[in-house]
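Hey, sorry to bother you again with one of my protein questions. I've been puzzling over a protein and I'd love to understand its fold better. Take your time with it, there's no hurry, and the full record follows here:
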Amino acid sequence: MSTSNPSTTCENALWSWRIERTEVSSSFSISHATRDGLRPTWTKIGVEKLGERQDIPLPRGPFDVAVILVGVTHPGNLGAICRTMLNFGFEDLRLVNPKCSPQDGETRARAKHASRLLDEVKVFADIPAASTDCSSIIGTSGKREVGEKTLFRHYLYPWDMVERMTDTKGRVALVFGEEGKGLSADELGQCDYFVTLPTWEGYPIANLSHAVNALLYEIQRSRVQSTQGNDPGLPDIVPLEVRLDPSVRDALVKAIHQFATGLSSSPERQQSIEQTLRRTLLKGSPSTEESTRLIGAFVEATSALEFASDDDAWMKGHRRKLR
């Protein structure tokens, strides 16, 4: 473990402060200086060490998901699939006749903090044995029939699949085939229906781990949109809706006005700058947090302008162009 403490000193005619950064392995904290009038105030921001929040429960949805890999060959793919499964809150991994070992060093390395899925993985002889507790079995493939009539491979896109899975309840099996081959016609025949990714028809076959990632992402996206904040496994950290509090919006408009009127310009130019800033910023629909930061910047700039307003030499000679 290594620790470093680089620091930066920021100065100008009105104030100076020291910003320190501390890094410990993959986590860090940064001290930020903000301004309240001319008095710096300090806050600290901390970031959790990656992979160390597994005390949070897995998300729950209207259905459970079992990922079934048939004949998985490459250790790296198996490990990457474990990682992407836990990334999106899934842990039920089942293997049918695997051609690589869950104990392989590369598999473990690629799984990173999701190696517990490899400890708990179950191995089966065929798809029916691996899906006896599943209410719906969905086969995946990128091989699509071309022509006016589809004889066998009738596909859904991932978003349509999620709608049907929601109606199914219970446990749903997502079945993926071997790298370079995919599911055979016989293996697809053991599934209830099929899903395919909206890939370009000129090169439709995705890497196995990428295909698993895409489908699990679609399921997780649906869960986030419907239950974030109400599910302990989906805490409301990233807001689903960007909202600007009316009082903060009024404060931002006031801060823009005070800044514009503090400029050493004609009233017409001050009004033009105020309108441009107001239209540009509010047209971007800033959040309450973003607007609060903008208010702080405008207040600080206005304070500096007020401080220098009695300095005739500065008022006449200050630069008006970017360096």
